[in-house]
Write a structure and sequence with these properties.
The chain has 5 helices and 10 strands. Helix content is 32%, strand content 34%. A hairpin with an 8-residue loop joins strand 7 and strand 8.
Length: 180
Amino acid sequence: MVETFHYGSMNVTRLMMEPSAVMELRQTLASYMGHFKHADTFNLINSMISQNDWLLEYFVFHKGRLIERFRRKEAFRSMKTQIDFLRNRLNKTILFVKVGAYIELYDEDALSVGRRLGLSVTKARKRMGAVAGFPARFEGRFLRRALSFGTDLAVIDEGLSGKFIKDRYFREIYRVLPIN
């Protein structure tokens, strides 16, 4: 679920966020937590988390319970609220949002990153503010270029149709750290 690689003068950690893999991880951790609550395991749980701090990218541990950081209980009524929810979960992270056969950047990402990537920026669409995009088949090329800016990046994929709009989820999150 986690891999680290070098990219230029940076270390990049890639977190895979496919819903089925996250659910499997959650089930495994829930099983451990179920066993742990039958004893005084506060130190054991803290040790497990500190040795595997990447788990905090996926979950919040609160009062012995696992809460997924990127899941919302209610259905989203608009793409704007969906993207705002995801953006609030990853502050200061470039969001590549899959929309059909395209990857789009919205608002500040479109204005700053989109322009640096050489993309055309258009005015508001679907209440999203500024929009920039490119065909999804070029995702790898634009992803590498965006990572070279030294900023964290997340790829948001679309799933099945939800109650009101398509469900979207983090497919990958890239954390960028300069090499010392």
